Amino acid sequence: MLRIDSEFGIASADEISQPTDLPRPAYGCGLEAMRPFAWEGQLWSSAYMRASAAEGEPVIARIDHGGPAPYRMTDWRVLRPIGAKMNGNNWLPLVKPAGIGTDRERLQFLSVGDSIRIVGDQGQTISEKPSSVAADELKGGTQAIAFEGGWLTLAHETRARPDGAQPYCQHRFVWLDETGCLAKISRPFFFNEKGVEFAAGLAWHPKDERLLISYGVAESEAWIAAVDASEVSSLLERTEYLFASEAYWSSLATTSADGATIQIVAAQQRKEPGDLHQQTRPDSRLPKEASRIVLSGNAKGTEEVLLELAPFLRFADSPHERRDQSWAFDSRIAPFLDWGDAALPQIHCFYEVLSDTAKHLTLIAATTSMRAAGHPVRVWSYSPNKLQFLVPFGVEVRAADDVMPRSLFERMVAGSEIRYFSDAFRYAVLYEHGGLWMDCDVVMLRPFPFRGDYFFNLQWRGGHQGHFVCGNVIYAEAFSPHLRALYEMSIERFFGASGKGFGEIGPKLLSDYIASDQGAELRDWVFGPMFFNAIDWTEIGEFEKPLADVAVYLNDERVFGTHLWTARNEARSGGEGAPLISLLVEPLRSFPTLIDLADRFNTDKNRHTGNRHAYARVYERLLSSRRLSMRRLLEIGLCRIAAEGNQSETPSVSLWQSYFPYAEVIGVDLTDFSQFNNERFKSFVCDQSKLEDLRSVAAKLEPGSLDVIIDDGSHASFDEQLTLREFFPLLAEGGWYFIEDLDWQPTGENASEITLTKHLLREIQQHGTARSIDPVGISDLADQFAEIRFFDSHFELSQAKLLGGLVAIRKRGGVGLVR
Fold first, then answer.
1. What is the per-residue DSSP string for 158-226?
2. Are strands 221-228 and 115-120 parallel, antiparallel or unpaired?
3. Which residues fall within 8 angstroms of residue 366, CB to CB, at 6 or more apart?
4. pLDDT (tens digit, 9 = 90+) per residue, 374-390?
5. Any alpha helices (H) in 715-770, and if so which ranges?
6. Which residues contact 765 (CB under 8 A, 6 or more apart)?
7. DSSP character for 144?
8. Complete DSSP assignment for 235-261
């Protein structure tokens, strides 16, 4: 039993004696593979008692500290799960807190594998559910701990080496939802090296948002690792986005924990039993980073390497399937998107005016969309005086001579075309200045807050020419050796005997370099086409369709912008049926902010109608990143005036449908609005003060099916809290729940029976639970609240000096790309 101080030093080490009444073991040395856990105020442990080399039984025992020995295991008993017999070392302890229906903690055990089985402390089956992925190789692991509304454990699988050498272990984080379903899983990784490693301990660090993991290496060393909980969360991928075949999972055997930095903080265990008390902590921590994907060797060509890296490119002919198959690959980017208030990356573009009569529609559309998204934009040109019309839009115009000499520009354009020169220029400017490169025909639809080392994106087609990686969007830090190498190779190719065609130093050079041993490091930073190339260059006919008809391409949270491919696609404004291309060429008019859009509708969420709450600014701040990916939004309270029974419009519904072009809006109100129902709107009649009404509505909707819920209903605290309790399960992980007009209360509520909703949520925000009366039980939801934010009604602030009229609650969980 090790006691570890806050600096991970070993304060003491004492032997734990075996139970005095333990029978002589038939095999081995008694109880092994201990996994300690706290249960009902005492320390217990699960263990494994072998009956043979291959079989054994699970045992639980209390660790007593009151006898002559420092610690002794007592009150032990064999756990004999009812039903199919399973390996006794695979049962992992899970302690559920006291809750509804019981005032005691509940000890359960789970086993992961082809099915997820949970039993009680007497062996009775509580649940058994099939695994949603091919997980039959998962074995053993750590205790299960409460994590993001469910349960997290660390399991392992043993893999054979092709040369017949000693097998090795790889680990996966496994997350079960509150019903016991395997809902998320990480890709496999190792801690120190690819060898024999077993993890048997997982716990929260007592002082911060980190997890502690204990594991053994080579069956001879004991280690402790600390990892940020946020890193673990980013590693977990929803199982519905993953392939279910064992072939796919086996193909990831060389993959390690993408993006996670696991910090090793304890020295290896000494092998001499007598020296336990003399163990010391190392002088410095050893960072162990696992983030490399080993995919190719010298023998493989570019096509083989990149199709092995991104097999979903084989589904390019099916927009639905390619989008689904690429999700898991692209979700690696989540840890590198910073949704805070840090400055967005600098964008660099290159543009040369070749005609004095050109209207530069695409250039203006692209650069103004980048500025509207909040990025600083710099356009480099050899004729900067001709681009001064960009300056009023907030675009910086710089002389390209400061990056590459004009003479080289003229020579390269004379020997090829300007697109060819632009390929070389992007490498040069990123090497010297760093930041984001974007082609001048990329229209941004929202900010791209990337904070990784590199960003490259693929295109769906072009592999027949060796064009896999599209250079239209690239991110790199200044003085990157890879960008320098690409620049030098591009110049060498130009002065060589061949290679002056389009793409030779662009997509083809990028693809060849990343597939080579020299550029292998960059494969970790290659992402799918959905970010900026959702519509491929071979699909430019889709730009002629209205926005509603291209949902299969754009209704995805990975879409940050759209490449117009203007070399093949004519940019123009207007057109019958408002084709997509005309919207993108005028992005500020076609995609106004929610603040400006709200002013066009008869809703007090704007700046001039009714009570002028100006809530649109809050919704813009928190929901703009979901503009194209929003699936379903529910709003309670559609009437503009409570007594109005013949309302001829639903202005807030129209606002949401205009801003979120692919979202279905669901309305809940005392008034029947079914006359307005259509394919993007449906309504329910409901009195939110009545539990049976709320549950009737909830029963018609799937749990976790709503991205946003807005309560603009009766504003009575009891109604608000009852609705929050009943509807919060309908909210998706990472979704937002809003309650408006917290400072307005109808008459008739008894302050001795209900706490004002604003005060109740403020207490939960500050203390983690309610301090005042909470008859509905909102505190029971607190562990599902990732954050609670208060915002002001501008009307209440100016008229009554009241703050915090709107509350926004984000639900825990979610591994998506938006916040």
1. EE--TTS---EEEEEEEEE-TTS-EEEEPPPB-SSSSS-EEEEEEEE-SSSSEEEEEEEETTTEEEEEE
2. unpaired
3. 349, 438, 439, 440, 441, 442, 443, 444, 564
4. 999 999 999 999 999 99
5. 717-727, 757-767
6. 788, 790
7. B
8. H-EEGGGS--SHHHHHHTTTB--TTEE
R_g of the chain, CA atoms, integer Å: 30
Q: Classify strands 56-64 and 442-444 as parallel, antiparallel or unpaired.
A: unpaired
pLDDT of 570: 65
d(CA 759, CA 787): 16
Per-residue pLDDT tens digits for 249-276: 343 333 333 333 344 443 334 333 333 2
pLDDT band for 24, please (50, 70, 90 cuts).
Answer: confident
Rounded distance between C-alpha atoms, residue 464 and residue 36, angstroms: 57
Q: Residue 561 corresponds to which tokens in the numbers above? A: 């912008």
pLDDT in tens, 102-141: 668 888 888 887 778 888 888 787 888 877 777 777 887 8
Say yes or no to pLDDT of 707 above 80.
yes
CA 611 to chain centre: 37
**Whole-number Cα distances in Å, 50 to 117, 215, 578:** 21, 21, 72
Please name which of 537, 539, 432 lies closest in space to residue 478, comparing C-alpha atoms. 432
Nearest CA to 615 out of 732, 731, 445, 739 is that of 739
Tens-place pLDDT, residues 437-470? 999 999 999 999 999 999 999 999 998 888 999 9
Q: How many CB atoms lie within 10 A of CB 333?
A: 20
- Phi and psi at 466, nearest 5°, equal 80, 15
- Helices 717-727 and 691-699 pack at an angle, to 10 degrees, of 30
